[in-house]
Each structure stands twice: as structure tokens, then as C-alpha cells.
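May I ask you to comment on the folded chain given beneath this request?
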Amino acid sequence: MDVMSPQLMWIGTRCYRVNQSNAASKEQTSDRPEAYVEEDTYGEDDREDEYNIELTDAGKFQTAFHVPSAFYAMIIGAKGQTRQRLEAETKAQIRVPKQGTTGDIVVVGTSRKSVATARSRIELIVMGARNKQQFTHFLSVPLNTPAIVKRFLDFREKVLTKLPVAFTVDESLFQQPEKLHLTLCTVSLMDNEDRANAAQLLLDCQDSIIGPTLKEYGPLELRVRGLEYMNDDPHAVDVLYAKIESPALQRIADQIYECFISKGLMQRKYDHVKLHATLINSLFRGTRADAIDEQEAEKKRITFDASEILRKYGEFDFGSTVVDAIHLSQRFSTSCTGYYEATAFIKL
């Protein structure tokens, strides 16, 4: 890690530094934490007012909140060391449901500040652990309209039949027409409550973000035109995608992204959402887009030469559409329509 440019993590309006422990440079074991998170202490901690902290009959302060059971072990740590360290540093007691059970994390302390600090530290641990998970869901805008699908099939046919043999791409690498979509952001949702929270947050965004934007811009139009790729070498590409043109949708995507970050469901990775629609993906090779084992698919990933595709069809126009819905889509799924299963969706 570059000590002059440490990894930063945002929760709400607060910024935190993720500091690597000495053990991080050695082989990691289950008895060593990989890292700890240090709060940026410039200014006073304002997290206390964001939490529901109650005064109990025993005269102590308490807060209870949901954490997916998959993250309990990270909060407890090897031989309970992480929880013990947090309790010692925050002067608060942390109660974690027993293995195999579910329930709320409960934090109890003699002051509101100690309880808030302990909860904030736990949320940082959870966010760091969540960020290491493969994403399970993504916010998507379906692009499988008849007009765009027709142009996509035309593009696929040209790539498969009109290029020199040395630059042909296997048909299995193309996105399924029924699943054409643009991605707004990805998220790891670990249990039913996670999914319910994300669904409610998307619904809240409809009123606070999408509604005002539609009022200003009118119908949410977008244009799918031009090609880009994910890496620096057009001769060795993993993902080829179509560019999306829509200032209004860009504004909505950026604001929804900020909203999901503020609620701890995702970590900031970039300043602005990159609107894109995947057309060809080497991850699809021999597995299809709805494969379950991503790690096995990653092992089979072989880049393809997209230089001729970009040269001949770099400005290919896939057409326009008006966005009428945003989905919280489940990865590796297929609904009866051929699109991804929707955990939730909102109509625009």
C-alpha cells in the first residue's frame, strides 16, 4: 500500500483510512486480521445522531442493528480478539448472536458516544468484508427492446461473419439478447434483510432522486452508440461494451450510487458511474452469462482481439429508447421473460 495514498472508505459524510497491519505483508492466517480501519479524526464524530440509541432501564445506552450472519466472524475475530479490542477501545460491550443463529448486533455502553463509536467501527468492518464478496445483485436498466435487440443481432452477425478469420469471436462470448442491459452499480446482498433494505432504498430514490430529475428533464431518453473496452490493449480485451449517452440518467446513476454508499451497502470505487452495456465478455466463454461458479469461469477467461471490431464498428449505433424502469437484478438468474430475476424494481 502507498502510505502517501492510503485506501479510503466513506460511510455517510465520514471518511476513514484503511490501514494494513504488519501481518498483511506476510502470509495471512485465520488468526490474524487482514487490516483495521482507522477513523479520519479531523473534526468531531457526527455518527452519534444517525443511530437509534436508547437509554435502558438499567441506566445504560444501547443500540441494536442488523448485520448479515456471514460477517459475524469478522466482528468477533480469531479467538474473539477483534471484539475484545473493539470493546477495550470503545468502552462498550458488543453482543453478537451465536453461530448458526440470527438476530441483531447489540452494543451497550455507559455513554452515547461510546456506543456510537463501537457501532461505527463495526459498520466499517462489515463494509470492508462486504467489499470482498462477489457481487450478488446490480441495479440495471433493461435494454432488451425490440429495436435495440434487432440492432444488437445485426452487430453480432457482422462481427461473426464480416471480419477476417484471425479476428473472429466465438458466438458464446456475446450477451444474450434478452439480457441486454446497462449497469448502474453492483452490490453484495447477503441475506433477506439486506435485500429488503436495498429494495426500500431504491424505492426511496424514486422519490428523492428520480422524480425531481424527470421533472427537470422529462422522459428519460438514452442513446446506445459506440464501443469501448475495459483494458488498455485492444488486442487483448476481456469485455467489450456499448457506450450510453444520457445526461439525465448519468445524474440519476451518480446520485443513486452516492445514496447506496451512504447506507453502507457499497464502497466508493470511482467518482462517477460508468454507464455501459456489456456486448461481449470473455467470462461467458463456455459458461454463459447465467453460470453459477464465477471463480471457475474466471479461470477459463481468455482475452480476445477486438481491434478489428473497434476499427470497423467502433461507432455502431444500437438505437435509442426511453427508460421506463430500474431493476434491482439478481446476478446469475433468468426470469420467465429471459431477463434477470428482479428482487425489486421501480417504474419511471
Notes: Confidence is low (pLDDT under 50) at residues 1-8, 10-14, 19-44. The longest helix spans residues 192-217. The radius of gyration is 23 Å. The longest strand covers residues 221-229.
